[in-house]
Design brief:
alpha+beta, Collagenase (Catalytic Domain), 20% strand, globular
Length: 121
């Protein structure tokens, strides 16, 4: 996953141990309730273990939600999966998406990272 490492490096950070755990909507909903006190489905939950510039963490992704997102946004499942993966990595880099401005900035960074993947294809 050189494109993910390149994205991290472009933010002047060092790629560390990043685990992607693919799961179901039901499992991610339970995690969302337990760890974040949110009672709704989500596509990704990130647990950040970053120390200094070394980026590490666990990124849980609901494959069910990725499939639903792909239909909703009219994109291929693989493309949506890569978007959700890099979204989790951006959270590890310290970016948030609570506010509209943050969401817009996050989408732009996702697109830049996805372009790295396209270059490597």
């Amino acid at each position: 996953m050189a494109w993910i490492s390149e994205c991290i490096s472009q933010h002047r950070r060092i790629p560390g141990n990043i685990s992607f755990i693919f799961t179901s909507n039901a499992h991610l909903l339970r995690m969302n309730k337990k760890y974040l006190n949110h009672n709704y489905f989500t596509d990704v939950i990130t647990f950040n273990y970053t120390e200094g510039k070394l980026i590490s963490g666990d990124i849980f992704i609901s494959i069910d939600q990725v499939r639903e997102n792909a239909v909703t946004y009219g994109v291929m499942e693989d493309d949506e999966l890569r978007r959700v993966m890099i979204h989790g990595v951006l959270h590890l880099l310290g970016f948030n998406d609570d506010l509209k401005e943050e969401q817009d900035a996050m989408r732009e960074m996702e697109n830049e990272a996805l372009n790295l993947w396209l270059k490597g294809e």
